[in-house]
TrEMBL record:
It comes from Vagococcus xieshaowenii. PROSITE patterns: GLYCOSYL_HYDROL_F1_2 (PS00653). The keyword Ribosomal protein does not apply. It comes from the Bacteria. This is Glycoside hydrolase family 1 protein. Keywords: Glycosidase, Hydrolase. GO terms for biological process: carbohydrate catabolic process.
Length: 488
């Protein structure tokens, strides 16, 4: 296995999936704070109260009824409220990351911990202090922080009161938040990600019934335009604040394959690559909309509102690094009968050559080598794999051990694929495995969809001590890092 000497091995988490402390020390609310547990295999829902007093459940990514207020039902369990309580365990958790030998820790700052509603004049000092303490702790162990500014967590106030990302003023609120934290942590953080999996909605569009697509596309593509502008402005600002700063875009790197060699299937896979990945990648890496953007807007009947100097703003905010998550490939076909849906996607077909995880995600290390080559060939800037892993339930044995050979096997094969991609010529500089400590699943709200090297004693209903235990994969990853993947 060949990895560069200073390769960043590490792990990744997101604020609302680990921190807990959802309403203390000044933190404002976000969407997941009104998302009650959906239970095993049910997708999560948000709770709102209508002006009539009636409580309604809105599916994630659904439309909130007019006049509805965020509602927390005291009789229900909200998994993100306490999560694994990283807020109070960060010292212990970072010590465990250090014990594994982490060189990098990808985490996110919760916007609503700094600006509870997103619009205040002054930042919340308790929030600033919390992250300063986390960064100081990482520094103690020489672990480089990689900080995501937005991991699906816009302050709820902006979402419900001002129109969220549809409103151009959200750009300024976000840039101000970024400026405050980038200035505050100038001496502690050098690697930043602006928006996590910014491209998700373009994939999700295809899952909607035909009748809803036009409206959803109009909103998604306009909101995305505002996020691209926000990202570009933050990139420019980051360089002004500290020329050492390196800023990355972050894309959900689902690799599209054609199910067959039928030309329409091949074209469909190419279209998915363009719409799902290159649309967002091109804007952030090349600083302009790709040649196929107009055709895409036409496909969905979208009228995009842009202002005169938007193009110049985008061009000035090109990122330094391309980062992405990789969990699976997807198989596309125009043959409707073969479309069964897979993983989080309700479209696409099962790939007969792959094994699937308990949550239906196709395990495909070769797809990682493929997409790394594809992306690097197009962009030729340093790449980071900032999420990858197997979500699977584990068994805690009476003696405190957790035997997870399936996770070791999954990760090993993906590390081999990265090594091949490096040999292919890809400039890959980091790998931060997802959910390095068990956390609340973003897609399902479950705890049992575990990704960690560290087991956390907590179940889907909130029972458990939250005590941490080292899994077998913990020792495996420790050896891998110590030998720079020569031994694993
Ligand atoms: C990505 C998100 C993460 C994470 C991961 C695994 O989409 O960036 O927040 O949770 O997927 O997904 P899940 O939690 O649904 O298993």
């Amino acid at each position: 296995m060949k990895f560069p000497k200073d390769f960043f091995w590490g792990g990744a988490t997101a604020a609302n999936q680990v921190e807990g402390a959802w309403n203390i020390e000044g933190k404002g609310m976000i969407e997941t704070d009104i998302s009650a547990s959906g239970g095993v295999n049910k997708h999560r829902v948000l709770t709102y109260q209508l002006p009539t007093g009636e409580i309604v459940e809105v599916p994630m990514f659904g439309r909130v009824p007019e006049g509805a207020n965020p509602y927390v039902d005291p009789t229900r369990y909200y998994p993100n409220h306490e999560a694994i309580d990283f807020y109070h365990h960060y010292k212990e958790d970072i010590a465990l990351f250090a014990e594994m030998g982490f060189k990098m820790y990808r985490m996110s700052i919760s916007w609503s911990r700094i600006f509870p509603k997103g619009i205040e004049n002054e930042p919340n000092q308790a929030g600033l202090e919390f992250y300063r303490n986390v960064f100081l702790e990482l520094k103690k162990y020489k672990i480089e922080p990689l900080v995501t500014l937005w991991h699906f967590d816009t302050p709820l106030y902006l979402e419900t009161e001002t129109g969220g990302w549809m409103n151009r003023s959200t750009i300024d609120h976000f840039v101000r938040y970024a400026e405050i934290v980038m200035t505050e942590y100038k001496d502690l953080v050098n690697y930043w990600i602006t928006f996590n999996e910014i491209n998700n909605r373009l994939f999700f569009l295809e899952m909607l019934p035909e009748s809803q697509r036009q409206q959803a596309a109009q909103i998604s593509i306009q909101e995305l335009h505002h996020q691209f502008l926000a990202s570009a402005k933050v990139v420019k600002l980051a360089r002004q604040i500290n020329p050492q700063n390196k800023i990355a875009c972050m894309i959900n790197g689902v690799t599209p394959y054609p199910l067959t060699s039928r030309p329409s299937d091949v074209l469909m896979a190419q279209e998915a690559l363009k719409q799902g990945i290159y649309y967002c990648g091109d804007i952030q890496v090349r600083g302009k909309y790709p040649s196929f953007a107009k055709r895409l807007w036409e496909k969905y009947g979208v009228e995009l509102e842009m202002e005169a100097d938007d193009a110049a703003v985008l061009l000035e905010g090109k990122v330094d690094i391309f980062s992405f998550s990789y969990y699976m490939s997807m198989c596309l076909t125009t043959d409707e009968e073969a479309q069964t849906g897979q993983g989080n996607f309700s479209f696409g077909a099962l790939n007969p050559y792959l094994d699937y995880s308990d949550w239906g995600w196709g395990i495909d290390p070769t797809g990682l080598r493929y997409i790394l080559n594809e992306l690097y060939g197009r962009y030729e800037i340093p790449m980071m794999v900032v999420e990858n892993g197997l979500g699977q339930d584990d068994t805690l044995e009476a003696d405190g051990s957790v035997h997870d050979p399936y996770r070791i096997d999954y990760l090993k094969r993906h590390v081999e694929a990265m090594s091949e991609a490096i040999a292919d010529g890809v400039d890959l500089i980091a790998y931060t495995s997802w959910g390095c400590i068990d956390l609340i699943s973003a897609g399902t709200g479950q705890m049992s969809k575990r990704y960690g090297f560290i087991y956390v004693d907590l179940d889907d209903e909130g029972n458990g001590t939250r005590q941490r235990y080292r899994k077998d994969s913990f020792y495996w990853y420790q050896r891998l890092i110590a030998t720079n993947a020569e031994e694993m």
